[in-house]
Amino acid sequence: MELLKIFRSARHIYFGHFGKPAGTTPVEELSAADLAPGGGIPGDRFKRQVTFFAEETWLRLRRELAPHGNAGPEVFRRNLLVRGADLNALVGQEFELQGLRFRGLEYCKPCFWMDQAFAPGTLDALNAWRAGGLRAAVLTAGRLRAAPVDVRASA
Question: Nearest 5°: phi and psi at 111?
């Protein structure tokens, strides 16, 4: 598994907003993040875990739903954009990324705002593909570093 991007956001913009407008707290991209057991990315709204999202899912959505769009992977509001992992297979499993150990906790269900955040049809596609991401617990301390690549260029 390769780590491409690290994101954090101080507040939820969708959770607890059902039937109301989404919030406006931005997503911040980080080049690195120091993690500790039982915690998330410092300053992120998920204080006790991290969330993973697959680059392959983002690229497939771009091809199938938004070939002329420019929405980046940050709109999915997951912490870690990775390449080369079957995230669903990691639920209930321990795994390693850059020397840090994680335990896959559960599948991340996508929210209904995905059609607005990315493109119409995104929510249905993510549900059909079961590709909303992975929630994971941090088991060991260390620093994660994002790959020095521009994923938008590969889209």
Answer: -95, 165
| Cα 132–chain centre separation | 8
Cβ neighbour number for residue 83 with a 10 Å cutoff: 17
The DSSP output letter for 144 is E
What is the distance between the alpha carbons of residues 112 and 91, in angstroms, rounded to a whole number? 23
Q: Would you state the torsion angle of the CA atoms of residues 96, 28, 55, 94, taken in this order, to the nearest 10 degrees? A: 20
pTM (two decimals): 0.89
Number of residues that make up the chain: 155
Q: Provide the strand spans (E) within the chain.
A: 2-8, 28-30, 32-35, 50-54, 80-83, 94-97, 100-107, 134-138, 142-145
Q: Which amino acid is at 59?
A: L
pLDDT tens readout for residues 99-123: 999 999 999 999 878 888 899 999 9
Q: Note the pLDDT tens digit of each residue in 9-37.
A: 886 655 554 565 665 678 899 999 999 99
Measured between alpha carbons, how far is 49 from 80 in angstroms, rounded to an integer? 11
